[in-house]
Design goal:
By secondary structure, the chain is mainly α. Helix content is 68%, strand content 0%. It has eleven helices and no strands.
Amino acid sequence: QQAVGRGKLVSSLPGPEEGEVSDGAVLRKEDFVWSEHDFNDGERENRRVLKRFTKEFKQMAAETPDGLRDAKLLTAALDLALACVKCYELDKADSIYRRCIGECRRRGMPWDIKCIQDMATLRCKQHRQADAAELLEELASKAPPHPATFINLGTVYNQLRMYDKAESWFLQAINLKGGTPDREDHWNLGIAKKHQGKYDEALPMLEQALSEFKEREPEQLVTIAKVHNSVAGCLQDMGRLQDAVEQYQQARSLFLQTVGAR
């Protein structure tokens, strides 16, 4: 299962602490324009669009003598880096973030929070989950508690096979949202408990997730197929092979409806 939930910039983030920069600059969501592009037009067109964004950034940089110490250029750099992530130009994104992180940390919140959370997304796409976990732990220690951060931590620790930690972060996310788990929470927790061998707890959670996805998001066939796979994997580990086969068959049928036979 892919990481779910991305940390959002929220208005309640505190400002710079002692020793951090406070020049009146504001990090605004509406200033992130390039990274809002969908990049759904094929690799060639995506590269062309990203090249245009990069050219615009370089022109802006040439006209900014203070470099990344200028808040407007720093915002543009973060915007371009995230666009590179979306376009899977991961090395380019990495290079930009490495140049930005020092200035973002110097400025403090919310600049460092934005940079850290987007770097964590990059690390996951680079399959560097341990590095992503380290960044997300830093984010959790700096920023006001946010369910998305905790869910992402749980997801990364699931991928690292550190299932106790994953379960702990998922539970904290649920508590932060009011204590009632939703379908994503049932799925996440079910996966963690399955890998801990807690099948009697895992299976009802996964089945509940499946039921709720079918009821609330019936058009999301790929997601429902993935949950069928999760249920099947749990049943297989429990030795209920025939039940597992039925779940795998339902998953396969849904996948074929969306992506076709390969």
